[in-house]
Amino acid sequence: MITVVGTGTGAPVPAAVAAGAALVVGGRRHLDAAELPAGAERVVLGPLAPALERIEEYVGKELPVVVLASGDPGFFGIVRVLAERFGAGLLDVRPGVSSVATAFARIGLPWDDAVVVSAHGRDLRTAVNVCRARPKVAVLTGPGAGPAELGAALPGDRVLVVARALGDPDRERVERVTAAEAASRDWGTAVSVVLCLDEARALGAVRTVAGVPEQPARWALEEAEFTHRDSMITKFEVRALALARLGPRLGDLVWDVGAGSGSVAVECARLGAAVVAVEKTADGVERVRANARAHGVDVDVVHGSAPEALAGLAGEPDAVFVGGGGRELPAVVTACARRARRTVVVAMAALDRVPAAREALTAAGFACDGVLLQSSRLAPLPGDVTRLAATNPVFVLWGVRSPVPSEGVAQ
Known about the structure:
By secondary structure, the protein is α/β, with parallel strands linked by helices. It folds into three domains: 2-97, Cobalt-precorrin-4 Transmethylase, domain 1, CATH 3.40.1010; 100-201, 2-Layer Sandwich (Methyltransferase, Cobalt-precorrin-4 Transmethylase, Domain 2); 223-401, 3-Layer(aba) Sandwich (Rossmann fold). The protein contains 13 helices and 19 strands. The strands form four sheets. It has a seven-stranded mixed beta sheet, with helices on both faces. The longest helix is centred in the first third of the chain and has 13 residues, at 48-60. The radius of gyration is 26 Å and the shape is elongated. The relative contact order is 0.08. GO terms for molecular function: protein methyltransferase activity. Pfam families: Methyltransf_25, TP_methylase. Pathway: Cofactor biosynthesis; adenosylcobalamin biosynthesis. This is Precorrin-6y C5,15-methyltransferase (Decarboxylating) subunit CbiE. One of its GO terms (biological process) is cobalamin biosynthetic process.
């Protein structure tokens, strides 16, 4: 039997649990804080592979093993690895209070509506994008992905709550700082968790499903649900196809270039992505912001003309939507294709812009496809009859980046 004990946020290791252990595995601070039997072998956790091999030797001899971990070891913790290696039936898990629950308790906020993302041993960009998209996020940090790195990548309206050494009566610190303040400091190695908050919305609404936000019941919304000028808006039929090809989701970064009313940007944000909208007109910028507020989402709006404005955007987008079709379109598509990680979608009313846009995508290594989208909507006529009213045809072109073949076997 492997007994997994959660500790480190104020919960001591029960003496009776460790008393009969032949092998005790854990971080150095957990081993030093626990009262362990004199005859037990101790293994300090570093790389997991040697520790797992040692555990396997003791399990094979049917000798009791105790593993010490921080907080709740079933929450982004070692329980997953142990269950995969030895089977869940061999585990006796004694959870402590997670660092996330403890941190929210320290600042008096509920966390059933918080999104929790791990940056420990993972690419920080996913955590950054989730923090940009959601008002209440807990980030589990790691080397190279701590409060300073997170703060440097986030907009100035976010507040970071940095919780260090949770559960240690002498060293625990919980500090509220701006993103800029977080970026300017050296936080050391004792960070337990970082909470990223939009404080105006931090309390949140009553939830039925915890964690990941509820998906919208509808998408490809009617044009009337957005403020726009003279019907200058991506029609819902075009938006439906564009969204299907963009595939926006939580953890993604999406650009809407030539945003106009921002209908595509808002819809991508409603589906969970962090979104940057680039719009060249001042009144268009205000419309995008107004539409984002009306739909309760965050959209970072940049006032500028593409492709020049794209050079100043931080981060590499997962997907890009390009609207409009001026002379600059090939250069805009080229600039977007250079930086897009997954896909670029271009909507054009002018058919003669299609070859140049397609060439820009294929030259950047994208597999390219497209469709001329022409729809007719039901429209009433006098006498209680209905006709079909044609909308303007739009060519939708999309490019998908070919995956880079992996070398060797993933570890």
